[in-house]
Every structure is written in C-alpha cells, then in structure tokens.
C-alpha cells in the first residue's frame, strides 16, 4: 500500500481504452507547460493513466477538467491498495483513510475503468458501495447524506484485490461515474450518431449555456447530414435546420416542418444569412475539417458550432493539437473552445466553439 497523502501523489484519469498514450501525452505536455515535473504511467487498453507529480494538487488546479481532451474523469489519487484479503476489503480502506488528515466526503462512488479487463469488476463495484458507505459514515469520513458541495471519494477497482482511493472536487470533474453519461438510443433517432451530439451538448456546454444558446426558433445547418442523426437532435432542441447532404434523410425529419434538405456538398455550401448553429460529422481529413470550420466562424456564417475531427491511427495527440491550433488561429475571436473525446466517439474527438460577439 502506498503511503496516503492528503494532497495526493498523482492524477488518476480515465479514458477510452486504447487511448492511454494520447492521454499520457496530453498530461505530460500540459504539466510541462505549467512548469510542473512529473511522469505518466499506464498500460495499453487499461482505460486509465496515472500522472505522478510531487505537486499533484497544484497540477490538478492547473489542469481544469473541462480543458482536458482525452480524459473522461480526473481524480486526485490518495492511495493505492494491493494484495488485501478479498474477504475484507472494507478494513484496509477505512485504515488508509484514517491515516490521512481528517476529511469529510460528500459522496462515495465505487467504479472501475471502462476496459475489457475491468468489465468483470462491474458487479463488485455496484454491490461494494452499499457495504462500504455505512462503514465510512461510522468512521466519520462520509457525510450522513449526500452533499455534492463537498469533495467526492472514489474507490476505483483495478482488480479484486487492487484498488485506488481518490478524490474529486465539485465543479472540476465529470458529474457521471466513470465519466460516462448514460444515454439511451431514442426510437425515432435516424442513427446512433445522434448519441454523439446529445452527449456533446450535455458534456461540452454548461447548463446555463444550453439554456441560453439552444432556444426554440434558432436556425442551424447540419453539414453531411444523412441520414439525419445530428439534424434530429437539433430539431429536438427547437431549431429549424438546413440539412446539407447528397444522400437521403429519414422521412419523418422532413415531415417535421423544421428541416430543409439541400442536396449539396457540405464542404462547398455556405448560408446566405448568418445562422445560430452549424454542426458537422463528416468523414474527412481532420485538418481539412478544422480549416473549413474555421472559415465558418471567421466569416460569421454561424455563431456556434459542434464538429468532429476523425483522428489518424498514429500520433493522435499531435494531430489533435495541430488541428485545434489551426482552428484557433484561423477562426477569428472565440469566446469558447472546448474539445473532448466523448464516450460515444471512437477514433475522433468532438469540438464545441462559440464566436465572441
């Protein structure tokens, strides 16, 4: 067992399995830019990265969660427990927390990485929380009732006798266990790609932004719309949508009275008047997409955009950084630029940008 440290000894970040090198590269570069020395430790397809740093708490403050691209969740690691008796997992956890300076946590989440190796731990994670909560409340480290204003305690199982204790702070973490919003495919959605835009609007926009920027009567465009998954999401949010694609859209979208379908090339078409929104999920080279999206913003053709960048098989962090730098340099003044590899993304990241008025 590592020596517990109230300040934490590492960032513990989860990610999509297979993207550990990208997350490690992002954390390493961001830490260096913040002037903080450290190193990443991970294993391919593990679904998480640990970044060790003597000033881990300072590093956590220097890397706000909403600025990270490949992290689904960001935690401050407090201790690592290995080799305990699986018949009594509670006592080692209580003892480890007792060795830390007194702290009161508002919630307990018991989780596991989203990887093939860790999936068998799902049942343990679900059941163990119910057994652990009373013990932590008796020990005085967990509030009697959930309180989201206080730090959250995370128990992350890596194996049956191997876990990490970590904490997260309100407003600087994902609000969902494992960093995964549980969305369901709607029966009327034209394609599963609708889940990507739904997650993007839920993840990349804050609650006040969704209320302010997605209002009934706004107008948007969907470039490369067929069969209409992203168009459907915009319509559900009250927008009137111009869907650009040479392919067909689902008929019920056209029947809604809120969709105009233009058979045209999404990379060539431009609106006659400024729109509130433009979204794009076209399969194209990421730099070409970044440049075209920047043109839309620079020319004032839209005020807000969500688009995907399909990443190459190699040097994905480098390509991500290059594309975002290119977009930022060419898009004109931006009020917001956020990017994340979403749960429903695969070999891609999703970007939200808003023009400065």
Biggest sheet: strands side by side, in what order? 2-3-1-4-7-6-5
Number of strands: 14
Number of helices: 10
Q: What would the average pLDDT be, to the nearest integer?
A: 94
**Terminal Cα separation, in Å?**
53 Å
Structural class: alpha/beta
**What is the C-level CATH assignment of the largest domain?**
Alpha Beta
Main location: cytoplasm
Domain Ribosomal RNA methyltransferase FtsJ: 191-283
Binding site for S-adenosyl-L-methionine: 193, 226-229, 245, 265, 281
Active site: 310
Mind explaining what this structure looks like?
Catalyzes the 2'-O-methylation at nucleotide C2498 in 23S rRNA. InterPro entries: RlmM_FDX, RlmM_THUMP-like, RNA_MeTrfase_FtsJ_dom, rRNA_MeTrfase_M, SAM-dependent_MTases_sf. Belongs to the class I-like SAM-binding methyltransferase superfamily. RNA methyltransferase RlmE family. RlmM subfamily. Residues 11-75 form the RlmM ferredoxin-like domain. GO terms for molecular function: S-adenosylmethionine-dependent methyltransferase activity. With 357 residues, the protein is α/β, with parallel strands linked by helices. It has two domains: 10-179, VC0802-like (2-Layer Sandwich); 193-355, Rossmann fold (3-Layer(aba) Sandwich), CATH 3.40.50.150. It is 29% helix and 25% strand. The chain has ten helices and 14 strands. Strands 2-3-1-4-7-6-5 form a seven-stranded mixed beta sheet. Helix 8 (251-254) links the parallel strand 9 (240-244) and strand 10. Helix 9 runs parallel beside helix 10 (316-330). The longest helix has 17 residues, at 122-138. The chain is elongated. Mean pLDDT is 94; it is low at 1-6.
């Amino acid at each position: 067992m590592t020596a517990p440290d109230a300040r934490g000894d590492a960032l513990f970040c989860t990610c999509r399995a297979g993207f550990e090198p990208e997350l490690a590269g992002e954390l390493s570069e961001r830490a260096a830019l913040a002037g903080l020395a450290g190193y990443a430790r991970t294993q391919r397809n593990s679904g998480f990265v640990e970044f060790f740093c003597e000033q881990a708490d300072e590093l956590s403050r220097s890397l706000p969660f909403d600025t990270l691209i490949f992290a689904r969740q960001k935690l401050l690691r407090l201790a690592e427990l290995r080799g305990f008796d699986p018949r009594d997992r509670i006592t080692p956890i209580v003892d480890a927390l007792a060795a830390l300076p007194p702290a009161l946590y508002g919630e307990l989440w018991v989780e596991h990485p989203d990887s093939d190796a860790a999936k068998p731990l799902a049942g343990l994670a679900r059941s163990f929380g119910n057994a652990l909560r009373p013990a932590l409340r008796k020990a005085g480290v967990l509030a009697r009732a959930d309180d989201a204003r206080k730090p959250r305690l995370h128990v992350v199982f890596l194996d049956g006798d191997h876990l990490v204790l970590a904490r997260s702070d309100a407003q600087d973490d994902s609000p969902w266990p494992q960093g995964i919003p549980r969305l369901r495919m709607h029966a009327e959605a034209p394609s599963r790609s609708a889940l990507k835009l739904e997650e993007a609007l839920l993840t990349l926009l804050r609650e006040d932004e969704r209320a302010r920027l997605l209002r009934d009567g706004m107008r948007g465009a969907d470039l490369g719309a067929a069969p209409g998954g992203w168009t459907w999401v915009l319509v559900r949010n009250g927008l009137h949508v111009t869907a650009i694609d040479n392919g067909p859209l689902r008929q019920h979208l056209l029947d809604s009275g809120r969709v105009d379908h233009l058979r045209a090339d999404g990379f060539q078409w431009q609106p006659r008047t400024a729109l509130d929104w433009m979204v794009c999920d076209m399969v194209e080279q990421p730099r070409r997409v970044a440049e075209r999206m920047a043109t839309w913003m620079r020319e004032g053709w839209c005020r807000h955009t969500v688009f995907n960048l399909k990443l190459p098989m190699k040097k994905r962090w480098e390509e991500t950084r290059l594309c975002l730098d290119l977009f930022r340099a060419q898009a004109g003044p931006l009020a917001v630029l956020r990017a994340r590899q979403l749960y429903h993304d695969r070999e891609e990241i999703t970007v939200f940008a808003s023009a400065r008025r």
